[in-house]
């Protein structure tokens, strides 16, 4: 096909998609987008130089942002895993050129996610969520009644002015914000699967993703009684929160699994721990109204992903904090202890035991090499076992069927 005819075809397809993307079913828009991406896969950048420029413009405009994000995800999927119809040299060229687009795309994704959070924070400030005291904040109380772990001095020293949990119960997003967030997180997850993370991931982006992960930390009223009261829309809205949390945890786990240490590694590591600590606080709260632990009402998939995250965190990152004398290791382990014995399922409980095995293996290794810094940690773990285990096992015994047997 002559060059002018190709250019006219590309322009027509682009104009058609932009003009009608809101009026046609999603699958039609997706197929049209796939066609445009296939053309770009062959012609960009030599004969289709404005391919990514057009996509970036769509993703940054409010009325076409969902369309642009869909094209970004499709383009990266097709360009980074091309079919066998391309020559090896073209595949290498595509990978190199697409990698140059990553910084700008990450800025677009971070901008979309941050704008949703900013909009949401204004909504929360104007209309606070109902029953703000529905769940006790155990982070401000003693984790165990007689354990020395209730001291907050270490946390305040480590976190300074950041001890306030930023991940409080959040109302659901509106439909438009939810769609933008899901699409942005899906694009981000696709990127994280193949880019060199240490060169691109920052503490600020990680914090943003953790904020979305916190949407899945709160229980959802999915009981029959709720449905009978005609609150289906409320349940669907809260289900959206869980979906966001699951998608965000997938992104976090992708980062953690790559053993990623960004350029601003000190701030990154501190942020990882702070966010982990706050999410654990949320997940181990107890309901004042029902007396049940929060974890029993959290979506199973979210709990599984969060346990996977804790495993990656303990395996790759926990040891990086030991050089900091103010690191609140005991408080973290106390929360992890509660998280373990509040697991609503056998599989979840066994996964947490595997997590403890990883930590204990590391502890034994350090003690075997003559490191005395962990002597007190070992003593306090024994104290946890002596003072709190019976109560937590009793809680599991009464809350689950069949009961956990030791």
Fold and architecture overview:
With 406 residues, the chain is mostly helical. It contains 15 helices and no strands. The protein has helices at 3-20, 26-43, 51-60, 65-80, 88-126, 153-159, 175-192, 203-213, 224-228, 232-257, 265-283, 300-316, 329-341, 346-368, 375-399. α3 runs antiparallel to α4, α3 runs parallel beside α5 (88-126) and α4 (65-80) packs parallel to α7 (175-192). It is elongated. Belongs to the exportin family. Keywords: Cytoplasm, Nucleus, Protein transport, Transport. It comes from Oedothorax gibbosus.
Task: Please count the helical segments.
Answer: 15
Output the radius of gyration. Answer: 24 Å
Largest sheet: none
Helix content: 55-70%
pLDDT < 50 runs, ≥5 residues: 129-163, 221-235, 399-406
What is the average of the pLDDT values? 79
Order of helices and strands: HHHHHHHHHHHHHHH
Distance between the termini: 73 Å
Shape, principal axes of CA atoms: elongated
Strand content: under 5%
Structural class of the secondary structure composition? Answer: mainly alpha
Q: How many strand elements?
A: 0
Labels describing this entry:
single chain; 406 residues; mainly alpha; 15 helices; 65% helix; disordered C terminus; cytoplasm
Helix and strand layout, with pairings?
Elements: H1 3-20, H2 26-43, H3 51-60, H4 65-80, H5 88-126, H6 153-159, H7 175-192, H8 203-213, H9 224-228, H10 232-257, H11 265-283, H12 300-316, H13 329-341, H14 346-368, H15 375-399
């Amino acid at each position: 096909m002559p060059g002018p005819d190709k250019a006219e075809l590309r322009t027509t397809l682009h104009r058609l998609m932009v003009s009608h993307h809101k009026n046609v079913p999603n699958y039609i828009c997706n197929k049209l987008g796939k066609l445009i991406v296939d053309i770009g896969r062959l012609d960009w950048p030599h004969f289709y130089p404005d391919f990514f420029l057009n996509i970036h413009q769509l993703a940054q405009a409010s009325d076409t942002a969902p369309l642009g994000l869909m094209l970004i995800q499709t383009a990266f999927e097709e360009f980074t895993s091309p079919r066998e119809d391309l020559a090896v040299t073209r595949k290498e060229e595509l990978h190199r050129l697409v990698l140059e687009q990553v910084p700008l795309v990450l800025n677009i994704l971070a901008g979309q996610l941050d704008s949703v959070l900013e909009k949401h924070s204004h909504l929360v400030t104007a209309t606070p969520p109902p029953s703000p005291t529905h769940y006790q904040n155990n982070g401000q109380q003693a984790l165990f009644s007689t354990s020395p772990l209730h001291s907050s001095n270490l946390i305040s020293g480590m976190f300074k002015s950041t001890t306030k949990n930023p991940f409080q119960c959040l109302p659901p997003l509106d439909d438009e914000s939810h769609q933008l967030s899901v699409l942005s997180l899906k694009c981000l997850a696709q990127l994280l699967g193949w880019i060199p993370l240490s060169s691109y991931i920052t503490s600020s982006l990680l914090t943003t993703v953790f904020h979305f992960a916190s949407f899945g930390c709160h229980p959802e009223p999915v009981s029959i009684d709720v449905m009978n009261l005609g609150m289906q829309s409320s349940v669907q809205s809260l289900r959206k929160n869980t979906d966001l949390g699951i998608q965000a945890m997938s992104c976090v786990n992708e980062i953690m699994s790559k053993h990623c240490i960004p350029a601003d590694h000190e701030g990154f590591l501190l942020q990882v721990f702070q966010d982990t600590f706050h999410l654990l606080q949320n997940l181990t709260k107890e309901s004042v109204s029902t007396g049940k632990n929060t974890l029993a009402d959290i979506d199973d998939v979210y709990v599984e992903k969060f346990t996977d995250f804790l495993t990656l965190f303990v395996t790759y990152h926990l040891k990086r904090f030991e050089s900091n004398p103010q690191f609140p290791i005991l408080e973290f382990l106390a929360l992890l202890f509660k998280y373990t014995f509040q697991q609503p399922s056998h599989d979840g409980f066994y996964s947490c035991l595997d997590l403890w095995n990883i930590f204990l293996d590391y502890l034994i290794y350090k003690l075997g090499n003559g490191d005395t810094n962990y002597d007190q940690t070992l003593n306090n773990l024994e104290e946890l076992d002596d003072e709190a285990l019976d109560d937590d096992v009793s809680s599991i015994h009464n809350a689950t069927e069949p009961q956990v047997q030791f």
